[in-house]
Sequence to fold (451 residues):
Amino acid sequence: MNASPERADVVVVGAGIAGLSAAWELRDRDVVVLEATDRVGGRMMSEPRDPYWLNFGGHVVGGVDTATGRLLAATGVEAVELPGELAGLFLNGRLLAGGRVETFPLRAPLSTADRIALIRAGARVRLAVVRYGRATTRRAGESDASWRARVLAYRDDVTFADFLGRVPPDVDAIFRATIRRSSGEPEQVSAGYGIGYFQLVWDRSRGLTRNIAGGSAKLPQAIARTLGGRVHTRAPVRVVRQDADGVTVSFEREGREHTVHARAAVVAAQAYAAREVIADLPDDVSRALGSITYGSYVVGSFLTGEHSPMPYDDLYALATPNASFNMLFNTANALRRGGPRAPGGSLMVYSAAALAEELAGNSDAEVEERYLDDLYAMFPALRGNVREVAIHRWRDGVPHPRPGRHLAQPPLERPVGRVRLAGDYLGTTYIDTAVATGTAAAHAIRAELER
Fold:
C-alpha cells in the first residue's frame, strides 16, 4: 500500500462495485478510493475453486447493453449466459422445472383448493408483470435518473402482500420464497417492486441472466488491479466535509488519523453510512438516506464432488418454500454447456429477511447442519458428496423499497455540493443500479473538473 495521500482530484468513499465503477471512469485522473474493510467488491464476493467457485453475494448480471454489461466489456471480464432454468420450484417433496411457469399450479403437489388459489394468484401476478413491463419501458431520451424514479413510483402505494391478497399457506410460501430474495417480506416491500422481482425471474429478455465467469469478485478485483495503489483498504472514513476549496475526507489507517483534500467526492457507501459520514447534510437528503431499509441474509456455499448427473444440472435458480433457506442456486450451471458432464459442482443457498432473522442466534455450524439436512432431503444423491461448506452472513444485505419509497428519490439523485451519491439503494436493479449510479457520478464530476 502506498503512503496515505494528502491531495487528489476525487475521493471515492467505498470500494463496492458502485465506488469502483466511479473510480474506473475517473482512472485517468488523480483518484483515491477508501474502503473500510479488508477487501474490495462489497456484496460481489466469491472465492475460486477451480473450475468452480463459491459465491456469497450478488451473482447475476444483465446483458451487454446494461451498465454492468458495458463495464464488463471495458474491463475485459467475461460473463456467460446461464443455460439453465431461472424459475424452478421445490415444493412438498417435488421438483418442478422446465416448461412455462403457468403450468406449475397443474403440476405442484397441492390440494384442489390450493391449486385453484395458486392459479388465480399466479394469473394476477402474470398480468401485473406484463403491465409492469409496459409501464417501466425506457422512453426515448429518458435519463437513467428519471427512469429510476419512475420505476420506483410504480404501484408504490401498497405492499406486495396487499396486492396479492389472502392466499393459503402453501401458496403464500411459494410467493414469499421469491419475494424474500429482496431481503424483505411481502408485507414490507412495495407492490411494484415485488412485481418487478417476478419480471426479473420470468423475463429473460429484460432480466438478470448472466454469471461472471470464475465468480462475481472477478469484476471488482479487475478494477482494483488497474487502479493499483490508489485503492486503500482498511481505511474507514470518519467524515466528509466540504469547504470553499473542495472536500476534505478524514479517515483512519493503521491506527492513525489521516486526511485527503480533493476537488470532489463520490460517497458510494450504504445509505445509512453515507448519512453518517457526510457532514452538514441538507435535511431532506438526510431524511431520504435514513428512509432506506435493508434486510439481512445468511448464505451457505457448497463445493460438491459428485461424478454423475444431478437432478438440478439443468437449473440455475430454485425457489424452496418451507425450507431453512428460501432460494438455491446451482452456480456450476454456468459451466454446463453441453458435452460430457465434468465431475463436481458448486451450490449456493440463502436465507433472507425473516428466515435470516430466525438463524441469527444459530452458530455457523448449526446453520450448516440445517442447510445440509434440507439439501439432502431434496437431493439424496448429494449425501457424501459435499466437499466444503462456507457460511457467510450479511447483516445489511440489499435495500428493499417499501411503500412511499419513490418520495425519497429526488433528494438522493441531486448533488450535495461537491459530493455525489452512488449505490444500489438508488434503484431496483442491484448490481446494475450500483454500476450505473457510480458511472453517472463520475461523469458529472468529470464535467465539473473540466470546466
User: Anything to note?
Assistant: Residues 112-135 form the longest helix (24 residues). The chain has a mean pLDDT of 94.
